[in-house]
Write a structure and sequence with these properties.
- The longest helix has about 140 residues, at about 10-145.
- The termini are far apart.
- This protein has one domain.
- It has 2 helices and no strands.
- The radius of gyration is 66 Å and the shape is rod-shaped.
- It has helices at about 10-145, 145-169.
- It has about 170 residues and is mainly alpha-helical.
Amino acid sequence: MSFLVPDTGLLFWMLLAFGIVFFILYKYGFPVIISKIEERKRYIDDSLKKAKEANKRFAAAEHKSNLIIENAREEEARILREAATMRKQIIKEAQDKAESEREKMLLETKRMIQQEREAAMRDIRSQVAELSLSVAETILRDELSDEKRQKEYAERLLDSIDVEKASEK
């Protein structure tokens, strides 16, 4: 017997053993293996479908998220614009009110200055009148201290009254 060339009997029994093993595998083993492979294939296909659906849902959620973020940014910009407008309006109103108050205070101050000026003028006039009377009294006392001077003064007054009456006629 040679190692390179098999014997016919050995070849026959090997083929017979191979056929029996193949038949048993074909009858019982391959259907189980094929069913497991098919089951695995279905599981993988289902998983791929679910992954595609999840990707679609994720893309839709991402799109919604982007829309929400964009809307939020637009809303933020709108609110900031409104706040700036309100700020300008409030500042304008405050400036107008301050201007109005300033004008009122200015008018009130002018009125008070005018009143104080008039009061000072009245006071000065009063003091000038008192001083004039005092000076006139002093001058008249000096003039009228002598009896001769009194008579002369009385005559001058009478002459001036006569002149006034003559000019009226």
